[in-house]
Amino acid sequence: MNIIITRPLIDSEDLMGKLLSLGHKIIHVPTLKISKAELDPIDSEKYNAFIFTSANAIRSLKLLKQDVDKYLKSDDEIIKLEQKVTYISSVVDYLDRTIKLISNRGFQIKNAIDWQKFTSGVV
After folding, report:
1. What is the pLDDT along the chain (123 residues), one digit of tens a residue?
2. How many domains does the chain have?
């Protein structure tokens, strides 16, 4: 199937890739040109809320450095990734402790055998 996509490339790359992988022929004819406005950084302390009407508005937003952390902590995708990292870190920590216990098992078994020999008078 021949498909025409009229969105700007940055907004249609994923869709085009999926359609191409399904065997469709893609013709890309962007009907809009997105360009950044030259604006000074926005001080978020002066506003109660931001309403974005498109992903392009978010891409063009300039924030003061002190505000970046606020927006990272409110991004659902970043929150989910941080939770995943925390979970994986706890799994790695558990596995690390388990491996150490297993590694020490041989030493503990040898000590138990030596103790049994000692208490029975063999050594």
Report:
1. 999 999 888 888 899 999 999 999 999 999 988 877 777 777 777 877 777 777 777 777 766 555 556 666 666 777 788 889 999 999 999 999 988 888 888 888 888 888 888 888 876
2. 3
Distance (Å, whole) CA 15 – CA 12: 5
Look at residue 23 and tell me if it is in a domain: yes
Give SS3 for 28: strand
Task: Give the contacts of 79 (CB within 8 A, at least 6 positions apart).
Answer: 73
- Residue 27's domain comprises 1-34
Measured CA distances, 73 to 22, 79, 86, 91 (Å): 36, 7, 15, 23
Question: Token pair of 61, please?
Answer: 């937003």
Degrees, nearest 5: CA angle 53-58-61:
120
Cβ-in-10-Å burial (0-12, 13-18, 19+) of 42 comes to middle
